[in-house]
Amino acid sequence: MPDYSKIDTPDVLSYIFYPRDEFGPCPKYAFDHFIPVGHAVAVHCRFYSQDDSWPWILYFHGNGEVVSDYDEIAIFYFKYKLNVAVVDYRGYGKSNGTPTVADMSVDAHKVYESVAAALKERNLRDDLWIMGRSLGSVSALEIAYKQGSKINGLIIESGFPSIASLIVRHGIATPDMDLDAITKECLDMLKTITVPVLIIHGEYDTLVPPDEAETILENIGSPNKDLLMIPGATHNDIMFVGLRQYMEAIRKFVDTTSPVK
Predict the structure, then answer these.
(1) Domains of the chain with bracketed CATH
(2) Which letter does DSSP use for residue 206 in this model?
(3) Alpha-carbon distance 224 to 219, whole Å?
(4) Alpha helices in the chain, H assignment, sequence order
(5) Listed residue (52, 116, 49, 32) closest to 84, CA to CA
(6) CB 126 within 8 A of CB 54
(7) pLDDT for res 260
(8) Distance CA 217, CA 161 (A)
(9) Residue 157 has what pLDDT?
């Protein structure tokens, strides 16, 4: 795992994380699950399920979002016969604690293990696809790196290979951060990931430009990889500008990477 300790400074953290303590009541088509990740710290995950036989996507959201934002978005996944479990980070929604990049990376594995266990305990379909949007790509890539043999596929939406490049791009880097080392560690990690991967990005994304998606595509070790560029989409409207393309690509990816039963 890349060493994020040097970038977990107040200036960087205030740029990367926008925690909101908002949360809504659990819809009738969902259930809530809390995952211990540290001493007296737990993160909130909401499982949105329409049909027990449908596949599950474990979804790590973007930095200004919270789980309950997906109460309605989950319905679009239902239309494509997909269940989705969305997880918050420390300090977001019903989760307590304070978010850091280092903790987010470590927490991702505890989240994966807990979600997989919860599916088995409830006798739900337990094969998993991992998805990370924007900031969530850090968690998703970390799981694919360490848990690759246990997951069916990886979906990265509006993501990046290394958070260091965004720190540089947005002018908040300092000389002591050793960002070149972090970038190298991230790219080395990418090269070892061999699970099937689908990358989705907006053509006009200026927050995380398309070249970040292309860098993932070029460096990730998977022989089964594809990049879908959504025409006319930016960072925050990508799903709705290209809704049909977006959802059909995810459904096709899940279909082609499903285990043989």
Answers:
(1) 5-257 (3.40.50.1820)
(2) S
(3) 13
(4) 10-16, 70-79, 101-121, 136-147, 163-169, 179-191, 210-219, 238-241, 243-257
(5) 49
(6) no
(7) 62
(8) 9
(9) 98
d(CA 216, CA 225): 10
Start-end of H helices in 17-162: 70-79, 101-121, 136-147
* Residue-level length of the chain: 261
- Cα-Cα-Cα-Cα dihedral sign, residues 86, 87, 93, 95: positive
The alpha-carbon radius of gyration of the chain (Å, integer) is 17
3-state DSSP call for residue 81?
A: coil
What pTM, to 2 d.p., does this model score? Answer: 0.96
Quote the CA–CA distance of 217 and 128 in Å, as a whole number.
21
The residue written with tokens 């070149």 in the block is 180
Q: Mean pLDDT of all residues in the chain?
A: 94
Give the contacts of 61 (CB within 8 A, at least 6 positions apart). Answer: 67, 69, 70, 86, 87, 88, 133, 134, 135, 136
User: pLDDT confidence of 106, banded at 50, 70, 90?
Assistant: very high
